[in-house]
Design brief:
single chain, 205 residues, alpha/beta, DNA polymerase, domain 1, 2 domains, 6-stranded parallel β-sheet, two-stranded antiparallel ribbon
Length: 205
């Protein structure tokens, strides 16, 4: 690891925003008089762009009508919890205390990344953040920030890490298991962020 910048995905990696995402979807659906969708329907699609999740759980729904309603719910009403994932704050504090920069690169709408980090109590530990980047697009800011590694829970995160030429560190806190994350290019798979400091130290060696 030649630089001191570590990149992170947001949802289900640093922030547990499951409840807020689901409740914001359901709020918008209620306004649009769309039949309710069970929370389990969302699970496989966390980490994808908003419009793609919408088509997966409610095919044919007009995104032009849905998105403003969702944004109002998520940004202003803030239904449900959006807290830190286990070990997130301790891991970020360790990185700060050991001279690392931290950068968040997320598929979430750019202004909402800040909302999520603030509500999770992590914004003070993040040096920079980028929204509106999914899959291979995440490689662009990772290169610009000269990141050494990227931590995420999604196979697309590992693909982005490989494309950017950085080390992919996967957390099994999302929809993908160890095997899928390894096959996607993860150099290390950890159970939660409490294991990140030791992993970073090992990779430095």
């Amino acid at each position: 690891m030649t630089t001191r910048t570590v990149g992170f995905d947001l949802d289900q990696t640093l922030v547990d925003s499951t409840e807020r995402i689901v409740e914001s979807f359901r709020s918008a659906f209620h306004t649009m008089r769309i039949a309710d969708v069970q929370p389990t329907a969302f699970t496989p699609w966390f980490g994808y762009p908003l419009e793609e999740i919408l088509q997966r759980v409610a095919p044919g729904t007009d995104p032009a009508e849905f998105v403003p309603l969702y944004r109002r719910a998520y940004d202003e009403e803030r239904p449900g919890e959006a807290g830190p994932m286990p070990g997130a704050r301790d891991a970020l504090e360790w990185l700060r205390d050991n001279g690392f920069r931290t950068v968040v690169v997320s598929a979430k709408h750019h202004p909402v990344v800040d909302v999520a980090l603030v509500d999770a109590g992590l914004r003070d530990l993040v040096d920079a953040y980028y929204g509106d980047h999914f899959g291979e697009q995440k490689a662009i800011p990772l290169r610009e920030e000269d990141a050494a590694s990227y931590v995420g829970d999604h196979v697309a995160d590992m693909h982005a890490a490989s494309l950017a030429g950085v080390l992919g560190i996967a957390v099994v806190s999302g929809a993908h298991d160890t095997r899928a994350l390894r096959e996607a290019g993860a150099v290390s798979v950890i159970p939660n962020l409490a294991a990140l400091p030791a992993t970073i130290e090992r990779l430095l060696d």
